[in-house]
From TrEMBL:
Protein name: DUF7768 domain-containing protein
Origin superkingdom: Bacteria
Species for this entry: Ochrobactrum soli
Pfam family, one: DUF7768
Residues in DUF7768 domain copies: 7-104
């Protein structure tokens, strides 16, 4: 489904662990996707603004809400510069279940620690 001519993209990148660095990286991934003419969502950045990722019940709520977007997504883009986490694997599996194309990308600027 194209929205305003832009493909709907779900960004998969790490979040837990080094949250500060992973948040900076996810923001760089969003920017990369936008610059490619895509309409991305990174639910791990959105939902953690209102949910406590340390609380298992709230973490699960956020994950499930993010995974629900696979029903309308055109593509799952996995940014792999920082590795692939368990949550990212869950997203990849959900994408495959819904027949959503999975693409792997690396962005050198983020891997080098630059903050766009």
């Amino acid at each position: 489904m194209l929205y305003c001519g832009r493909p709907l993209i779900i960004i998969e990148s790490p979040y837990s662990g080094d949250v500060r660095r992973n948040t900076e990286y996810a923001r760089a991934c969003l920017l990369d996707s936008l610059r490619r003419g895509e309409a991305p969502i990174a639910s791990h950045l959105l939902h953690t603004q209102v949910l406590d990722d340390v609380r298992p019940d709230e973490r699960e709520l956020g994950i499930e809400a993010g995974l629900a977007w696979y029903r309308v997504a055109d593509k799952c883009v996995v940014y792999g510069d920082r590795g692939v986490s368990g949550g990212m694997i869950e997203g990849i599996e959900r994408a495959k279940r819904y027949g959503v194309l999975v693409e792997f990308r690396n962005i050198e600027a983020s891997a080098a620690g630059e903050n766009p």
